[in-house]
Amino acid sequence: MNKNTTENQTPILTVEKLKKYYPIKKGIISRTVGQVKAVDGLDFSIYPGETLALVGESGCGKSTTGRAIVQLDPPTEGKVVFRGKEMASLSGAELRKARTDLQIIFQDPYSSLNPRKRIGDLLAEPLLAHQLAEKSEVSKKVDDILEIVGLNKYHRSRYPHEFSGGQRQRIGIARALILQPKLIVCDEPVSALDVSIQAQVLNLLKDLQKDFQLTYLFIAHGLGAVKYISDRIAIMYLGKIVELAKTQDIFKNPRHPYTQALLHAYPIPNPHLRNRERIVMEGDVPNPANPPKGCGFHTRCPLAKDICREQIPGLTGTNHSVACHFPVG
Amino acid sequence: MEKNFLEVDKLQVAFRTDKGEVVSVDEVTFQLKQGETIGIVGESGCGKSVTSLSVMRLLGRTGMIKKGSIQFNGKDLTKLSEAQMREIRGNEISMIFQEPMTSLNPVFTIGNQMLELIHLHMNMSKSEARAYAIEMLKKVGIPRAEQLIDEYPHKLSGGMRQRVMIAMALSCKPSLLIADEPTTALDVTIQAQILELMKRLRQESNTAIMIISHDLGVIAEMADKVLVMYAGQVVEEADVFTLFDEPKHPYTKGLMESIPHLEHDSQKKLFSIPGTVPNLHMMPKGCRFHDRCPYATEKCVTEQPPLLSIPDNHNHRVRCWLLDEQQQQTPTDSRSEVIA
Fold first, then answer.
1. Which of A63, A74, A200, B76 has its CA 20 to 30 A from that of B203?
2. In terms of domain of life, where is this protein from (chain B) (predicted)?
3. Which helix (H) or strand (E) holds A166?
């Protein structure tokens, strides 16, 4: 893990006012009758060698953000600047080239691998598509990458269904890694795995980061894995970042009421603490197609006052930023 | 001493498959008292869900209880006819499932589905049943229950649907509630709500709960005693405090250490259990955990260990040879990464 994420470094990725709206269509002529504001104005930077985690509950827009950055779902508005280039301005060929440095690992290793292809072919595909290796070198590179992610070359001729969930996720990682990317967007890479396997994959990701100087954008809904892997954490709620700080600060000194509630909600594997005092948030996440006026969290916030129902708080603060009219602590 | 009202004894469950018969649950024994909560924890495929489904006798056409008995209030559930079993399901034992999305019928309103069950089991008139259903929905914290009762399931969020499932499950006042991963599909903040709700209802109704989860956090919050299952067998059984304070089986220990705790030091390497769960078709000989166990000996490879009580605590049972021989050493740094 890189501890020198100082301010004077140039970020590898900068996201400015990123928005992604999905139209709601109705009727025979598919008139647009509304918009789902999945991601509503995100600003953040990632520095080389660090891991930034995006954490939030389902529907908060964290995966959409990941996909928008890789341009799988181009953003509605805003800029994504990766290594000095704005992604939206790139031509098709340039974008393809940029993508060799910017890869993504998906949540579900079951559906992200083509079941009809052998592992060897699945791994060779990115190399051939990007013409990064001669035909003769491909097989050597595939063997090497299998070794790196903890599989071996005898696995090459097998099909995805012959592997366990953890092994499949290793294949997903190998597939991203074979292009020697600079930044990998990890979209809930361990959520679908069993606890004992999660630990294996998290350790692997951490080792790879050290060995290949990788930068991660790590998307997760649970805070446990995130604490272990990330340097900084951005907490998202309803398409916006509500708090962004160093990992220790988020855990030791959470300032947004939502972050606090999230930390309290986590079940602790220690039965002696089962009767602890804690905040249990009422209600559900509002519908992003019809978000509440003012602060998105005010409907569930124990501290909400009149201003929260009227004005949207901006993300303020340099090292520990929080979007709240009445931050705690 | 209260009597056990559920006693599962040496249960063995098998499924017919194309590749022959597979035993997915073997030698599972446990007891439950009125008002007690038992947690069953393990990874996918360890047989925790099958254990609970056997109590309900919901094993489908391919599954069957091969050996053992399930004594429930003096009746052996394995020997009852299908008609007798139907009397018990819903009435005395009810169940909530992981996916509240798929366990509610999408083409009927919430009220329709609740009334069907109340009508069937509780002998109430239509208007009484409706009032009762609304009362139950209010009890589980559903706002505007009078209106929502006429809505279809898709109008509700995941957390709300799970509340409806709980209301349905509890409406016939069962003495046993089986909750199979009740919060796995939900977000953490909603999970916290549902767990609080289950705790409150347990206090009010003195219902015994069998909660199945892969999440040790959920088990620590809810259970009085815990079964840890691995590859179809119980590998450790203890009350919740003993289990978390002094886990004995290498698998239980590994499972506990591999959770990234919130208070975990992030610089340390996360402990992980090497390898993967064995395939049911190819169960290893001897101890089923031996190929992933850092302490495995010759004996573990060849002979299957029995589930034995440890000397100073009669209720703490462990399936491990090492304990038998009292040679379990304190682990050293030899926990290097071995990969599947």
1. B76
2. Bacteria
3. helix A165-177
CATH number, domain containing residue A225: 3.40.50.300
- Residue A52 belongs to domain spanning: 13-112+182-322
Q: What is the tally of structural domains in chain A? A: 1
pLDDT in tens, B269-322: 788 888 888 887 888 889 999 999 999 999 999 999 999 998 888 899 999 998
Between B256, B262, B274, which is nearest A227 by CB?
A: B262
Cβ-defined contact of B277 to A194 (cutoff 8 Å) = yes
What b/e sequence results for B140-176 when a residue is b if at least 16 CB atoms lie within 10 Å of its CB, and e otherwise?
A: bbbeebeebbeeebeebbbbbbbbbbbbbbbbbebbb
B103 closest CA partner among B156, B175, B63: B156
Residue with tokens 């602890």: A276
User: Which of B266, B271, B291 to mutate to test binding with chain A, by most A CBs within 10 Å of its CB?
Assistant: B266
Query: Is the residue at A256 inside a domain?
Result: yes
In this predicted model, what pLDDT tens digit does every residue of B178-232 receive, in sequence order? Answer: 999 998 888 888 889 889 999 988 998 889 999 999 999 999 999 999 999 999 9
Q: And the tokens for A190? A: 């361990």
Instruction: Tell whether A327 is covered by a domain.
Output: no
- pTM for the whole structure: 0.86
DSSP B26: E
List the alpha helices (DSSP H) in chain B: 48-56, 82-88, 100-103, 110-122, 126-139, 145-148, 158-170, 188-205, 216-222, 240-245, 250-257, 298-302, 321-325
